[in-house]
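task queued by scheduler; priority normal; single chain, no ligands, no partner chains; default sampling; output format set to structure tokens
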Amino acid sequence: MPSVLVTPSVMPGRCDRCSELLAEAGFEMFFPPESLDTVADPAGFRELVAQRGCEAVIAGGEAYDTPLFEAAPRLRVVARAGVGFDCVDLASATQHGVVVTITPGANDQAVAEHTVAMLLAVGRALVGADRAVRDGSWLRAVSPPVRTKTLGIVGLGRIGRAVYSRAVALGMEVIACEPYPDHEFVARHGVRLVSFEDLLAQSDYVSLHVPLSEESAGLMNTEAIARMKTGAIVINTARGGLIVEADLHDALTSGKLAAAALDVFAEEPTPVDNPLLKLDNVLASPHMAGVDDLSLSDMAEVAARGIIDLNQGRWPEACIVNRKVGPDWKWS
């Protein structure tokens, strides 16, 4: 019986439908032992995949690289739970005949909710207010409104579009930067598309929703931040590598930027001595934007359906990342 390893630590207990689908298709599903941190212990993870002869993995943030593919020759599919795939060496996966899939549409609403929650929390200074009340202070500091402010969305994919709709409902002015926009969405909502440079200059809030790539790495650096309004706020629920953290720290301590809300970091888990975590004007969360009970169930199901399709000779085009592996690819 072919086996499917499910690595995200938050998925146990939320994979009932996924488990049913895989069992019906003749797969055995299992989780790593609690003692194994698949991200922090790549050697242990490779050993697990190899020893169990895994043919597919519903993957979290652990590394999928040449050493893993060489150690696990039976591996056929890496099904990422989510839409990011920067932890996968696509060239090596393709070379080893491993199909890499994602789960489009499964967690975009969850990420959008978390993004807006972070925007409101930093915009209305809720964390500081909570701390003050707990410390016995009843000083009602006046914050600027969120309504009427301009939100610049960098990346108008599924998540960016979901954030757009929510921000408009809050009464914000919303602009976006997107080289390949959904023209139907743009026309229907009257989205104002601008260049990246203009977005930085016009926005009170900048929210990042682009994948991490060679082109986007370090997108928010000293030069980009210098183009922003003094007192603007950065929100990142995409990938930590989009921001040069030292440059962001400088901007937050100098007063150039008022605050930052970060769900992702360059290194994850981010060290407790990360200088950004020492700042009162930084709101942090542990890369949890895309995970709620519904999105986890949906991601697991979409990932499982992709594995089953590939095993049964179907080609789930919309989910496949490394299409160079080719439609002539066979499971065995």
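post-processing summary
- The two ends are 14 Å apart (CA to CA).
- Residues 108-284 form a domain with the Rossmann fold fold (CATH 3.40.50.720).
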